[in-house]
Predict the structure.
Amino acid sequence: MPVDTSAPRSLALPGSKSITARALFLAAAADGVTTLVRPLRSDDTEGFAEGLTRLGYRIGRTPETWQVDGRPQGPAVTEADVYCRDGATTARFLPTLAAAGHGTYRFDASEQMRRRPLAPLSRALRDLGVDLRHEEAEGHHPLTVRAAGVEGGEVTLDAGQSSQYLTALLLLGPLTRRGLRIRVTDLVSVPYVEITIAMMRAFGVEVAREGDTYVVPPGGYRATTYAVEPDASTASYFFAAAAITPGAAVTVPGLGTGALQGDLAFVDVLRRMGAEVTVGADATTVRGTGELRGLTVNMRDISDTMPTLAAIAPFASGPVRIEDVANTRVKECDRLEACAENLRRLGVRVSTGPDRIDIHPGTAPSPTTEITTYGDHRIVMSFAVTGLRVPGISFDDPGCVRKTFPGFHEAFAELGRGIGG
Ligand SMILES: O=C(O)C1=C[C@@H](OP(=O)(O)O)[C@@H](O)[C@H](O)C1
Ligand SMILES: C=C(OP(=O)(O)O)C(=O)O
């Protein structure tokens, strides 16, 4: 790719999926009207907003904002059927919100979301007295909540497969009559819990920690105006593109030292590999230096960026080992195997273990390679980065990027044309 090494290319990226989902929950539960500024508009967050609408919440829209009429007392309808699409935040957070209301609420989801685990959350909700029934397989969607408010108290949770169970219970805490004490026996994706706690604070609730127990007071949320950061997981594709292109530089404004999202730490991985990284007060820049070293990295905290790293790993000068990412097997697809299979198709030597992937340098692609996406947005966006260096890559389902970034292909093509300036 021709590269101009002058000014970095500045990219205004869409809002964070995780922050938008939490903001929608908090706004719906708060007392008063909340304005979300620059929420993410994508299949996941539209699905979340549609779910809230089904539950009777009112959401007004302008081009830049969503206004949510909060209802501390819970859903405005006593019966609803909600389709959560492919979004785990929707499928796990909304039944929890509904539990605090009064009515009968059914939740279903996509085929893949039906396969993804939910049992530790439904068990915890039942332990708190919630009448939650799975219609088909135990611990999976579809499910029905017969809600009569939640008293609160103590509960034990295993969040070793997904932190979203803990986030759902934390968000529920202030809506219970006595508050919640959540004892956590295992936890992945810790930075997502930190996002939850920081956002609850912005809506007037302080979560305390006592060792392995999270303590959430009762009392409800306060409406506010909330500006959504750009999505740091989305930014990883653009940062990775710069890192593999000598002299190219990408700046993402709105993601700096004060950013809430743990996935911004992906730039630390790129820095360890040899990229030049600057994290400023309100922007982050990655510049490709021509050097890309192999490394061993634990991605337990930032596993949504595992496919991004896997997709550029063959361009490193030594092997890349990504460890402690077992739960990437229960995301939009089995991401460890999807990455391995597609890399092998590109002639790369790869092996996987229960919770790791090893990738060796070098590609030997055929002139055209179709990537099997399994409907997973991150497989598409990651291998699009590989495509900057390997010609002839196509996707069986390029449109699945709609889950978090409907405009990805246009934005990425533009970057490809002008990276570096
Ligand atoms: O809480 C959230 O918004 C998320 C938490 C993470 O999931 P797990 O906790 O299941 O790893 C992440 O992978 C997902 O994309 C979003
Ligand atoms: C795993 C993801 O999404 P979710 O769990 O929210 O469906 C993701 O966006 O990579």
Q: What stands out?
A: The mean pLDDT is 96.
